[in-house]
Design goal:
It contains ten helices and eight strands. The protein has about 250 residues and is an alpha/beta fold. The chain has one domain: Alpha-Beta Barrel (TIM Barrel). Strands 1-2-3-4-5-6-7-8 form an eight-stranded parallel barrel, surrounded by seven helices. Helix 2 links the parallel strand 2 and strand 3. Helix 9 packs parallel to helix 10. About 50% of the residues are buried. Bound molecules: phosphoenolpyruvate. Phosphoenolpyruvate (PEP) binds next to strand 8.
C-alpha cells in the first residue's frame, strides 16, 4: 500500500491585511518543535504571501496562492501569474476553486491550463473539483467528478506537483458536510479516476476533502479512506482553529 503524506491547506480567500499576519506567526510558533505528520500550507491573499513567508521563516509551514493566470505574463490587468506567486514565495497554488468556477465562470479547460502554468513555474497545483447540491440531489455526483477530473487535470501531473481537492460546493462555508459514507464514495471514485487521469501517479496523489472542516469534525473526516488531508476555508483564518484541524495528524 502506498503511504501518502497528508496535507492541511488553508484558503484565506479575500480576507486579511497586514494585521492578520499575527495568525501565521502564531501558527509557526505553536508548531515549532512539533513533529508534524502532514504538510501544512496557508494560502493568504497574494498581497500577503511574501510577508507571510517572512513571518514564518524557519517554520515548516508553507505558503501558497489562491489562483493564477494560465499565462506567464502579458496584458491581463488584475491577474497574477504562477511565476509571480513563486517569486513571492509560494510553493503551491489553488486552481479551480468553486468560487472561481462560479463567480468568474472558469471552465475546467481553463483550470487545466492554470494547473499546467503552475507546473511550468515549479509550484504545486491544488486542483479543486466538486458537485453542486442540485447535482448531488439528481444523483450526478460521481459523473460530475469524472467529467471535472477528465477536463481539469492536464497531462504532466504527478503526485509531487498535483493535489486534488474534493469540495462539494454545497458544503463550502455552510457548516454542512457530506456523511462519512458519501465522502468515502466520492474519494474512492476520484482515486479510481486518477489512475486514468494521472497514469502511474494516481495511487500516491493526495486527495484532500474540503467543505466546513473544523476542529470538531476534522478527526472523523480525516479518518475516511482516501482522504489525505483537508482544504480549509473559514477555520484557517485563526491559528487556534487551524491547529485544531492539524491535530488530526499529530
Ligand atoms: C474552501 O473555501 O475551500 C472551504 C473549504 O471553505 P470552508 O472550510 O469555509 O467551508
Amino acid at each position: 500500500m502506498t503511504t501518502i503524506r497528508p496535507m492541511v491547506a488553508g484558503n484565506w480567500k479575500m480576507n486579511g491585511t497586514t494585521a492578520a499576519l499575527r495568525e501565521p506567526r502564531l501558527l509557526a510558533g505553536i508548531l515549532r518543535g512539533v513533529k508534524l505528520k502532514c504538510d501544512v500550507l496557508i494560502c493568504p491573499p497574494a498581497t500577503l504571501i511574501r510577508r507571510a513567508k517572512s513571518v514564518m521563516r524557519g517554520s515548516k509551514v508553507k505558503v501558497g496562492g489562491q489562483d493564477c493566470h494560465a499565462a506567464i505574463s502579458g496584458a491581463h490587468t488584475g491577474d497574477i501569474s504562477a511565476d509571480m506567486l513563486k517569486d513571492a514565495g509560494a510553493t503551491a497554488v489553488i486552481v479551480g476553486h468553486s468560487e472561481r468556477r462560479t463567480n468568474h465562470k472558469e471552465t475546467s479547460a481553463q483550470v487545466a491550463a492554470k494547473a499546467q502554468a503552475a507546473h511550468k513555474s515549479g509550484i504545486t497545483a491544488i486542483i479543486c473539483i466538486g458537485e453542486t447540491l442540485d447535482e448531488r440531489k439528481a444523483g450526478k455526483t460521481l459523473a460530475v467528478l469524472s467529467e471535472q477530473i477528465k477536463a481539469s487535470i492536464p497531462s504532466g501531473c504527478t503526485a509531487a506537483n498535483t493535489v486534488v481537492a474534493y469540495e462539494p460546493v454545497w458544503a463550502i462555508g455552510t457548516g454542512l458536510t457530506p456523511t462519512v459514507a458519501e465522502i468515502a464514495e466520492a474519494h474512492a471514485h476520484i482515486r479510481a479516476e486518477l489512475s486514468t487521469a494521472m497514469p502511474g501517479e494516481g495511487p500516491s496523489t493526495r486527495i484532500l476533502y474540503g467543505g466546513s472542516v473544523k476542529p470538531s469534525n476534522a478527526a472523523e473526516l480525516m479518518s475516511v479512506a482516501n482522504v489525505n488531508g483537508a482544504l480549509v476555508g473559514g477555520a484557517s483564518l485563526k491559528a487556534v482553529d487551524f491547529i485544531g484541524i492539524i491535530k488530526a495528524y499529530l
